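User: Sequence in, structure out. Go.
Assistant: Echoing your sequence, followed by the C-alpha cells.
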Amino acid sequence: MIREILTFPDPRLKKAASEVKNLDGGLATLVEDMVQTMYAAPGIGLAATQVGSQDRIVVIDVNREEKGKDLLKLVNPRITAREGSIVWEEGCLSVVDYTAEVKRAAKIEVKAWTLDQKEITLQAEDLLAVCLQHELDHLSGKLFIDRISRLKRELYSRRVKKLIREGRPLERSKNPESAGI
C-alpha cells in the first residue's frame, strides 16, 4: 500500500523515532508499504517518520537502473563511524520543490538489524553514505534544510507557508532526476 508522505511544515517530521523493540510480522507490512511508497514517489530513500510512523526504520535503494537489486531495509540503524566530508546536492520527498548543497561525512559505517533479526554492518560512501545520513537525520527529527543556512531555510519556509495559505500546496515532481532522497 502506498502511504502518504508527510511534507514540511508537518510537525510530525520533527519528532524523533523510537527504537524498535520487537522485530515482528507487523513491521514487515510497514516496511513493504515504505518500499512501495518510496518507488512511487519516486525517491531513493524513505524513513518511517516520513509516513507517520515513529519506528526507527529506513528503506534505501540508490540503484535506479535495477530497482530492488540493492534495496536496504534497516531497523534501528545507527552510524558507528564517520570519515572525511563531502558536499552533495540534496532533495527530499518531505521538502517539496527544493534542493540545496549539504555537507556530510564522505564515508560512514552503519550498524542495523534486518527484518529477519540479523545484525549487519554496512560500509558506505558517496551517494549511499549521503542517503543513509539523510534518512537517519529523519529518524532524529531533522530535515536536510536544518543543515543549511538560516536565511535559505526561512525563505523556503515562507514560500511554502504562503502557498499553503493560498490553497496551493507544492506538488512533488515525478521526474526521477529531481527525486528526493
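User: And one key feature?
Assistant: Residues 11-178 form a domain with the Peptide Deformylase fold (CATH 3.90.45.10).
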